[in-house]
Fold:
Amino acid sequence: ALMYLEWYFNIFEQELCFYLKKKVEYEKCIYSNQLEKAEQFLKKIEKRCGISTWSIGQRFLLLENKGIEYNKKYLSELSKKLKSNIILSILLSYLSMSAERKMSYLGYKNKLKELDDFYIMKDYFSFKLDLFSDQIDDSFLSKIIQIDSQISIIDTYESIIKYIQLQYSEKLEINDILNC
Structure:
């Protein structure tokens, strides 16, 4: 899996570098509440690197600031375009839900339980949609790469970063963290 990732990331090296630079600018705008400027950075990322579930999730967050009806309208437009792609439709539906201001984390976790019916994809959905997923064994990495590399380079990159963070955070003990 790691050799494939190296090959895959090398192919898209310029796009990844562009994405990482613009993502920093995008996040600065978000944190300073410059939402129009943040949207411009998001558009630049999508134009150069393609649309990704990451960028769509960010757009849901931006639209939620205008009101939930904008979020839902965007989800409806995407759902019409993606009706034959069940995986993306489910991901986007839950990303929209996670952006809702009135949705609590516990409420969202309860909604995620609905995905238990998707037995084959349950672990993938849990990993992608739950901030604190525990689906991180080594065999799972191949599944993530297999699915995300069909969506976008950004989604593959973001998943690998999350995977690494979860792997190492599980191995850290509280004393290691406190002694930093």
